TrEMBL record:
This is Cellulose synthase-like protein E6. It is found in: Endomembrane system. UDP-alpha-D-glucose binds at E109, D138. Mn(2+) binds at K280, D304. It is a multi-pass membrane protein. Residues 186-213 form a coiled coil. The keyword Transmembrane applies. PANTHER family: X-BOX TRANSCRIPTION FACTOR-RELATED. It comes from Papaver atlanticum. The keyword 4Fe-4S does not apply. The lineage of its organism: Eukaryota, Viridiplantae, Streptophyta, Embryophyta, Tracheophyta. The active site is at D138, D443. Keywords: Cell wall biogenesis/degradation, Coiled coil, Glycosyltransferase, Membrane, Transferase, Transmembrane, Transmembrane helix. One of its GO terms (molecular function) is cellulose synthase (UDP-forming) activity. One of its GO terms (cellular component) is membrane.
Amino acid sequence: MTVISSSLDDERLFISRQAGGRFLYKIYFLVFLTGIVSLLYYRVTNIAYDHPVLWFLITLAEFWFGVTWFLQQGFRWAPTYHVEYPERLAESNLPPIDVLVCTADPDREPPSIVANTLLSLMSYDYDVNKLSYYISDDGGSQLTFHAVYLASVFAKSWLPFCKKYNVEPRSPKVYFSSSSTSSPSGQNFRQECDKIKAKFEKMQERIEKAGKMRNVPVEIRNEHKGFKEWDTKIDPRDHDSIIEVLLRGNGVDKDDEGNPMPSLIYVSREKRPTSHHRFKAGALNALNRVSALISNAPLVINVDCDMYSNNSQALRHAVCYFLDPKESHRIGYVQFPQSFGGITQSDLYGNGVKRIYEIEFFGTNAHNGPMYAGTGTIHRRESLNGRKYDPNVKIKFEDKSVRGSKNWVELEVQAKLVTTCTYEEGKPWGSEMGLMYGSAVEDVYTGLVLHSRGWNSIFCSPERKAFLGLAPVNTNDTLIQHKRWSTGLLEIFLSDYCPMSLANLFGDGKLKLGQIMCYSFYTLWALWCLPMLIYAVVPPLAMVNGISLFPKVSNPWFRIFIFLGISSHAFSLAELMLAKGTFQMWWNETRMWMLKGTSSYLFSVMVTILKALGISESGFEITSKVIDEEALKRYNKEMMEFAVASPMFIPPTTLSLLNLYCLVRTVVSLVTATVMSNNLEEAEPNTSLGVSNPLALVLQIIISGYISIVSLPIYKAMFLRMDKGRMPTSVTVYSIGLCATLVYLASVFM
Ligand SMILES: O=c1ccn([C@@H]2O[C@H](COP(=O)(O)OP(=O)(O)O[C@H]3O[C@H](CO)[C@@H](O)[C@H](O)[C@H]3O)[C@@H](O)[C@H]2O)c(=O)[nH]1
Ligand SMILES: [Mn+2]
């Protein structure tokens, strides 16, 4: 590794290094690029005139594989790592930070998760007088408010305990349930720990009991005026703003040992069925305004309720970038990786997203920095709220935060006014200010806009993971999440901020070439469905009809296909292994890639087309954070869970059946033909497929063979498993029907 910017002295708060091995990578790049170009040359010079449509489809698929491969190289060109020096920060210089947390649905996001996330965030190792907490509840739920209230009470014991014994991680649930905690020993500690644990368990019990009763006991309701809001039933889609101050900062509320507490404000913005609430982007913009009113810290961090803080030092790491004497003025936001707890050993559903956060995001550091990933992100409030970066003005880090004593009653009233449905009318929220509206992936969209305004971002990945979150734990949830992502990303590509816009490519756009490649790779994710569907449908159907679409084994071009196939897989495997992955992880990732490609991505292209025609709207389906015990057992055994009759399953199941069927039929008929011709002592086998040379089908056999091996868990789920996670019979029946129809149609038209 070579240090590229260490010249500066002890004042620097971070340095950057580029990964080694660039020369080898560049050789690979050139060789692979030559391979792709030759393959396309072969296609163009070998048009299959008897089957022009099939030839066109296959060529299109290969062209698109080539384009995405090329775009992906944006991440691989110059991976860059940063190291920050939090120990050099002066305590008095730490800037105030507002912490914004979102939750939306007490059933899918259990209130106890929200409470634990909040507690982990409230106990950061940071001057409490500089921290303010805002929680947005889009569910408008009394159960969530109850959990947040109980957390605010428990925090008064938890915060001093964390500080005193320097515990880690600071989510009490995780801390108390992990047996391996490296906790300090000693009589005092044990006693105190047991006491706090008992308090914590009581809190958890209360939250769970309220959840079961769907109501909060009267004695607790009487403890805080906020519960009065729910004296009459609240419809989450139709209610007034609710603002409740649960902890008053600035030294008003104190913890059990008499130290000041940070402020904590519960916000449920107004909802009306007649106005669009813009999902998470709308929620964050509401919190943005409420926090500006009450504390107005120059930095805001936003965290999803399902991501607890796992590193009490994380804020200090991020602050290094905003205070660095040399580079800070360019930096709009700092992004921590998304990491997940509870991922199975081989990451069954690929939801550990190692590739994104342990490989690709380091690549973005080389060109203006990573995408905004929606959680674990610290923004400079000014850049988020519309200020453009001006390289000619070396702006200073400005702290306009509100300090001093506050009239909390009055603030609640004012905060209600900025969280009404009509507040944003005629104002630039969602287009010029705050999070952008118009994509279900509001985060990447907003980050792209900030980059287009000239800001840089930073991928900050301290050794101890900053956050640990909850990822989907079954196939259907995973596919739905990816449908939302790929749809939202495609919406971004089709927006005014398209990374491949003429301004970005040729004009005065602010994006660098590498950045355009990375953004395009992500925002065009959905289009993977095109080559994947073609490769999963055309070669097998052509094969059973005796049509060869690839060079035969003896043809030198055959080797190009084999080379590209093997080396692309080998490269991605090697890459994952270098990031401490395993073969099985890579295999699972490959399988999920194919499942998503033929399901999530296909659906998102259809949703986007329907949206363009004005027929439907894209939405935000919240991922469920609950799992039942039996399903959890299967998950931990790494059995793929299907269980629900989801339309998302039908394309991949159909394709897996199709490939298996075509493979078996082709092989059987080739074998019988060979045997028969031997018996008759004929020179050339003449199969019922009508191909005189079986060697011309070898690549198609390989493709279908590969798809069938990847699909093994699907066949098992359809035909062999008896547990509840198996493929619902209705999906199997539909798929068989569809598969038979495809085979029939192909036999007629090919
Ligand atoms: O109307 C809504 C919908 C969602 N949320 C919140 O948004 C967050 C993310 O929702 P989740 O269902 O957990 O989605 P994920 O797919 O896990 O989220 C990923 O993808 C989102 C974009 O689609 C990003 O915003 C997230 O940060 C990123 O982690 C959660 O805290 C929700 O409470 C709201 O506040 N209001
Ligand atoms: Mn989530």
